[in-house]
């Protein structure tokens, strides 16, 4: 079963409950923390997905990591996922929640890969491009460096990708020369 298929119902329910309780911004911050923590700790993600590790140990680990850093509602989500044997989907739930939140707030997420760190001017230019392509006024742009691009950039906006990298141009040229 795909992660999104399991995670979406939990994320939707969490968003609905957060909206009802007026805690949507708090839960959003919690989900960002969960996502960033999982991104920064591969051992955590592996442990949560390991069927050999007892559920009680997984729940205790989540409590130790996030206690005092997340709201009670998020702590209850951790307990629910552990009780249902779905703790491996915590990262996916956080991702889906963030996507639903951004959709509700009309925010477009995008990722730009460049072979160098972005300057403030280039970041602003990419944000303008994303706004123009998506039609949304708010943009959350994540900048990542990928030296293998050689030059240019790769911009991902939702399920669209603009690849204007030197690496891709060289690969295309090589293919045309070979055929």
Outline the structure in words.
With 179 residues, this protein is α+β, with helices and mostly antiparallel strands. It folds into 2 domains: 3-103, Orthogonal Bundle (Peroxidase, domain 1); 106-178, no CATH class. It has 8 helices and 4 strands; from the N terminus they run H-H-H-H-H-H-E-H-E-E-E-H. The protein has a 4-stranded mixed beta sheet, sandwiched between helices. Helix 1 (3-21) runs antiparallel to helix 2 (24-40), helix 1 (3-21) packs across helix 6 (90-104) and helix 4 runs antiparallel to helix 5. The longest helix has 19 residues, at 3-21. The chain starts with a helix and ends with a helix.
Strand-helix topology:
Layout: H1 3-21, H2 24-40, H3 42-49, H4 55-66, H5 72-83, H6 90-104, E1 107-114, H7 120-134, E2 138-145, E3 152-157, E4 160-165, H8 166-178
Helix pairs in contact: 1-2, 1-6, 2-6, 4-5
